[in-house]
Specification:
- By secondary structure, the protein is mainly alpha-helical.
- The chain has one domain: Helix Hairpins (Orthogonal Bundle), CATH 1.10.287.950.
- The chain contains two helices and no strands.
- Helix 1 packs antiparallel against helix 2.
- The longest helix has 73 residues.
- It is rod-shaped, with a radius of gyration of 32 Å.
- The relative contact order is 0.15.
Length: 150
């Protein structure tokens, strides 16, 4: 019986070593998760900035077009059409940038939600691993107690 108990204690000791390794892995995962959350937050901030800047660029292009229309009364029709087309291209470019930034912003928010879900799963796993570790420690203590009484 003593030999069997020694075998079981050895298995439990290996399980405890494994739990130490898992705890270290969880700590690295936690650090990585923090970095991913930080990057997602920065991504959201940047896409917000790009959206705002592109909207402002579009507004300024429209304003420039208005100013040009007011000041070009004596300009040739060819120059007027070229400048109007150029300003329209600028406005369209800013609108395209704004649309792309809006899509990227939505993706960043979705990523943020997924990361939050992963954080919850990670916390659940940590809790379960703590319970497993405590059970292992109690099992070892019980086996050592029994072994000492033999």
């Amino acid at each position: 019986m003593r030999n069997k108990l020694d075998e079981k204690l050895l298995i439990l000791a290996k399980a405890q070593e494994c739990m130490t390794y898992v705890a270290d892995t969880m700590e690295r995962w936690d650090n990585s998760q923090f970095n991913v959350e930080k990057i997602a937050y920065e991504s959201i901030n940047l896409t917000d900035m790009v959206m705002n800047m592109s909207k402002e660029g579009c507004r300024l292009a429209l304003l420039l077009q208005e100013y040009y229309n007011e000041s070009s009364l004596g300009a040739s029709a060819d120059k007027y059409l070229k400048m109007t087309a150029f300003l329209e291209e600028i406005k369209n470019l800013f609108q395209n940038i704004s649309e792309i930034a809006a899509v990227e912003n939505d993706i960043s928010h979705q990523m943020e939600e997924e990361i939050a879900g992963q954080r919850e799963l990670q916390e659940d796993i940590k809790c379960n691993l703590c319970q497993i570790g405590e059970s292992l420690d109690l099992s070892v203590a019980s086996a050592e107690l029994i072994l000492s009484e033999l």
